[in-house]
Design brief:
5 helices; about 180 residues
Amino acid sequence: MELTPRTGPDSEGGDDAVSVVRRKRRVSVPAMVILVAVVAIGGFVMVKALGSATTFYRNADEAVAQRDSLGVRRFRLQGTVVPGTIAQTGEGVTFEISYNGVPITVHHVGDPPEMFKENQTVLLEGRFDADGTNAYDSDLMIVKHSEVYKEKEQERLKEAEANGQVPVTTMRSGS
């Protein structure tokens, strides 16, 4: 049995080794083009998905300073609720937040969280109004709370963990 490659005129693929190499290149060029296209499309999809999934937050003073570049693009806004500005509306609540002394009027659609109150730090998601003012339309509100709640309600929290529910006798009324 002979194991030498056939490159002569009797060989199946052509006249010499050059034709074999050329044939392999023709087969691999379309495969490389497809591979490059798949990688490029995958990269594009990943960048778009990560770009829209990541919503950056800005403090109120930063957002006002970047008002023109933000336009009506969706972003998160952080600030502290200004006392005396909370007003219930038919759709939700209107109030002002401030950060470093820069206020922004917020129109929030939906019910605010239970812990929402004056002098509370909030993180909002939405966009500036299209009318060019510094009014912010929000549809998501996250309220930051301190560890004071855990300190005040330790016994209640222990009972809830032990029983899986809060007994009626330990529930607080009011706030």
